[in-house]
Specification:
By secondary structure, the chain is an alpha/beta fold. The chain is 33% helix and 22% strand. The radius of gyration is 33 Å and the shape is flat.
Length: 941
């Protein structure tokens, strides 16, 4: 007898999932308490589906059937149910079988699996989700294969199995299709799973952003308050669907009367028509009733503006958890609580379900996500002030359910969004975020401002423990444009949304102020761009002079982008419209390169440039549709020898303007780096195979080592074990021999061969050559004894110093290579130069594991001190290919074996030929769960 409260009940198998149509369901183990639910579920299944399940007419379940299907040991017999509310919508079970097909126990590793999905919910991806979860359960219980018998006419179920991506065999026996699935995840099964995840999560966001009907719950009769404001913004924003107001204080019999021009009702149930989205703006203690009413009415999604949740303390945090549980129990997703709202400017939707006054913003190509309402207001205002519009806007508040990851899934396939801007206070799930970001940035720019280094109150998602510099490197690896302020977020967004990507870092500068041109030149050098000397048109320059100069610069093969500087005219006031038109004509005549304008006290010019949409010449092609496809954002063609790409025009004629040279150049530099990343990742690289790697031997050795480790603890391997493990991956650590006395040191040197090094290994002196704990190039016994005596006299007794003798390595550059596993982000590979550069200056680069050959090459070159590796000031370049191979081998080791939680190789001396690993520290533990490789689930905090 197993119930949900029984200690043997596997609660960790419970999960919320997003289905194909964007709704949610909960998957959980079936218990003995589910008999009534199972019978009710079966009664709602059609006779045809029952026939497909049992291969014969089977109108009802017998008592014996009910007992069998609700009593499980959760090892050899397991049943899972997909539920919405308190009802089953689908079930799956497996029974372990032996080679003869009869019931068996471990070590038998095959199980028979069968599904049944309620007809009303077929086509929603319920069976596919159940297969992912029952497969994960089976692997946990030592089952490696599923066997299934399916009638040939049951094409839907056959498709569920064949589309899963697992390795499988199919045969036809005794009138049925016999399928065998290997449950070991494959690249194909993982790709299938992630594609389904993307479609489902994108669809769940689309249901929130493109509803056919909206009800605002909590609209006061006086017209004041949050609910009334949201209703007015929806009404005044021109929402194309049906709009309803809900005010429970309305007197009976007044249903359908107008409130602020909108039909109003006492409850959602009184509306008498479908409601796709509900905007809830009632006090927190009344929200549960509102959510229940929405769920019973079939509402698809919620935007909860109400405050008083996680941001208010522990009690509010518990209310927040319960809110998410309640919404998901009805299959609804929610934005919020404490949200600012959502906006969708699509011509056929025009949804402003937010607290931003209508018109909130014009239609544009930028998607914007924020956690903070205040920051959302600032960003909306900044974009509107500078003439830029949005495709969509989501301010998620406490982000209890819908998160930035969900929005990325939506933007990835949203043809109306060319550029994605995100203000985040935490990354939440960094491993998933970087995966989604890398896929998104392959097709459109993603600009992120991270506003918090610790998890703020109200945000249930855990923050990562990784240092800021590491987070920045990982985002850069994924192609994310990381900025520090919301101002930089807007600046970069404006340039990326309105201009083509630059083909390189060469910048032409022209304008009517020599001083402003010099400032722009300096800013370009600071950002790593290659500016040409500024062209001074003098203060007497006319708009026509600007047009001529800009046309020439854009036509030149020696520049990839142009910055125009402008100051007010003295004595004669030229019209800003004339200058804006002149610049626009030049860009239209020679398209394909980005242009930015730096102005001083020329507010009229900013307005004219941002309003250019209305006066720009229309493109030669047909007008775009209401929901336009993404523009080609491939960098413009470069001179001979550089990568080529199709040129891109500026269809709306807008040119971004900035009040400071540094801001314009910073935005341009980010576009240059992003374009370089796009070109570089066109060839993503590969993870090399090395024939001398002994993966199975390392696995066996690690399995033995972790038996010494308690749950939740870690073990630092001794020198011999660490050397052996690394050696199985072709990483040789230079041997050391203990030297507890001078005589022992001499004997060790005799074994290793002169010359040798004498080093202390005491923790307080380790890797501290500056304290005199290392003596190098000892070529004779006399030198070794003298050094030993000096060492012990200066630093302490041999028992305190723990001296060792090591063979001398060839001279080179001392470096540090580390790998560390962060619970949220995964394994991270780090590289730096030993000593001051990495320890004091923080000059260390990072990449997520597994790294490709391209990642490894980039990692070596990402340091500010990297020139020391490549022949700085006439020194000999070191063997960077050997260094890159070391990084790749270490990445493979950590990626292949999750038991390895940390490795430090310090120092690694890279010589002109080869390298030497002088010391290694390896930590192991029981492998943590890899949620990114498991079945699809929604976060549960």
């Amino acid at each position: 007898m197993t119930t949900a409260s029984d200690p043997s009940y596997p609660a960790h198998w419970e999960a919320d999932v997003v289905l194909r149509d964007g709704g949610t369901a909960r998957i959980r183990p079936i218990t003995t308490e589910d008999a009534g639910r199972l019978v009710s579920f079966y009664e709602q299944v059609s006779d045809e589906s029952k026939y497909y399940r049992f291969f014969a007419p089977y109108p009802r379940l017998s008592d014996r059937d009910v007992h069998r299907f609700t009593h499980h040991d959760y090892v050899d017999r397991v049943g899972l149910a997909a539920t919405i509310g308190d009802e089953f919508i689908g079930t799956v079970r497996y029974d372990r079988i032996g080679p003869d097909g009869r019931p068996a126990s471990a070590p038998a590793d095959e199980a028979e699996v069968a599904f049944l999905v309620q007809d009303a919910h077929q086509g929603r991806g319920v069976a596919s989700a159940l297969l992912e979860h029952i497969g994960a359960v089976a692997r946990e219980r030592g089952i490696r294969r599923f066997a299934a018998e399916v009638l040939p006419a049951n094409t839907k179920m056959i498709k569920v199995f064949t589309d899963a991506g697992y390795q499988q065999k199919r045969s036809f026996e005794d009138g049925s299709v016999h399928l065998t699935l290997d449950l070991e995840p494959t690249a194909e099964s993982l790709a299938v799973q992630r594609a389904r995840e993307q479609r489902a999560e994108a669809r769940s966001v689309q249901r929130l952003l493109a509803p056919g009907s909206v009800a605002v719950i909590g609209v006061s009769r006086s017209g004041s308050g949050v609910g009334a404001a949201a209703l007015r913004n929806l009404r005044d924003g021109g929402f194309h669907g049906h709009l309803y107001a809900v005010n429970e204080a309305r007197a009976p019999g007044m249903e359908g009367d107008l409130l602020d021009g909108v039909r109003a009702y006492r409850t959602v149930a009184d509306i008498g028509a479908p409601v796709d989205l509900a905007v809830i703006a009632v006090p927190a203690h009344r929200v549960p009733d509102a959510v229940a009413a929405c769920g019973e009415h079939g509402v698809q999604g919620l935007v909860v503006l109400s405050a008083g949740y996680g941001e208010s303390g522990p009690e509010g945090l518990e209310r927040q958890r319960e809110l998410v549980r309640q919404a998901r129990s009805y299959g609804m997703r929610l934005i919020g609580p404490n949200a600012f709202g959502v906006i969708n400017t699509a011509a056929d939707v025009e949804l402003n379900a937010s607290l931003a006054p209508a018109p909130a913003t014009a239609r544009g190509r930028i998607g914007l996500f924020t956690q903070s309402g205040a920051i959302g207001i600032a960003l909306l205002s900044g974009l509107l002030r500078r003439g830029e519009g949005l495709s969509s806007f989501v301010s998620a508040g406490n982000r209890a359910d819908v998160s930035g990851n969900d929005i990325l899934q939506y933007w990835y396939e949203d043809g109306a969004t060319d550029v994605a801007l995100m203000y985040l206070e935490t990354l939440g799930n960094p491993r998933k975020f970087t995966r989604l970001a890398r896929r998104t940035t392959a097709v459109k720019p993603l600009v992120v401002a991270l506003g918090g280094r610790h998890t703020p109150a109200g945000h249930l998602v855990p923050g990562t423990r990784l240092p800021e510099a590491t987070v920045s490197d990982l985002l850069r690896q994924a192609g994310v444009i990381r900025v520090d302020t919301v101002t930089e977020l807007v600046d970069a967004g404006l340039l990326l949304a309105g201009q083509p990507l630059p083909a390189g870092p060469r910048v032409a500068i022209l304008g009517n102020s020599e001083s402003l041109g010099v400032l722009t030149y300096d800013a370009c050098l600071t950002e790593g761009l290659r500016p040409s000397p500024p062209l001074d048109l003098t203060t007497a320059a006319t708009p026509e002079d600007f047009r001529t100069a800009l046309t020439a610069a854009l036509a030149s093969a020696d520049c990839d982008a142009v910055v125009v500087t402008a100051i007010p005219w003295v004595g004669e006031r030229a019209l800003a419209d004339d200058l804006a038109e002149a610049l626009r004509e030049a860009v239209t005549e020679v398209p394909g390169k980005p242009v930015a304008v730096v102005h001083v006290e020329l507010g009229e010019l900013v307005e004219a440039l941002s309003a250019a949409r209305a006066t720009a010449a229309p493109p030669a092609t047909a007008p775009p549709p209401a929901s336009p496809a993404p523009r080609d954002r491939t960098p413009a063609a470069a001179p001979a020898g550089a990568p080529t790409a199709a040129p891109v025009g500026v269809p709306d004629g807008r040119i971004p303007a900035y009040p400071a040279a540094e801001r314009a150049v910073k935005a341009l530099a980010e576009a240059v780096r992003y374009a370089q990343w796009r070109r570089a990742t066109a060839d993503a690289g590969h993870v090399p195979e090395y024939e001398d790697i002994d993966e199975s031997g390392a696995a066996a050795r690690l399995a033995a080592l972790v038996t010494r480790v308690g749950e939740g603890a870690a073990l630092t391997l001794d020198e011999a074990d660490a050397r052996e493990l690394l050696g199985r991956y072709g990483i040789r650590v230079l041997p050391t021999l203990p030297a507890p006395s001078a005589d022992a040191a001499v004997r060790a040197a005799g074994v290793l061969g002169y010359p040798v090094a004498l080093k202390t290994t005491a923790p307080h002196l380790r890797h501290r050559a500056d304290l005199g704990g290392v003596r190098l190039d000892l070529t004779t016994e006399a030198e070794l004894r003298r050094s030993y005596e000096e060492l012990t006299e200066a630093l302490g007794k041999p028992s305190e110093l723990l001296p060792v003798v090591q063979s001398m390595a060839p001279r080179g550059v001392d470096t540090v290579v580390r790998a560390v596993v962060d619970p949220a982000a995964g394994a991270v590979l780090s590289f730096g130069l030993a000593g001051v550069p990495s320890e004091l200056l923080g000059d260390t680069a990072h990449r997520l594991v597994p790294v490709t050959d391209r990642d490894a090459a980039g990692l070596v070159r990402a340091l500010r001190a990297a020139p020391l590796l490549f022949g700085w000031r006439g020194s000999d370049p070191v063997d960077t290919p050997a260094l890159e191979e070391l990084l790749l081998r270490l990445s493979r080791l950590v990626d292949d074996h999750p038991e390895v939680t940390g490795i430090s190789l310090e120092p690694v001396v890279v010589a002109t030929e080869g390298l030497s690993v002088l010391s290694a520290t390896v930590r192991v533990a029981h492998p943590p769960a890899r949620t990114d490789l498991g079945p699809r689930t929604l976060p549960s905090y």
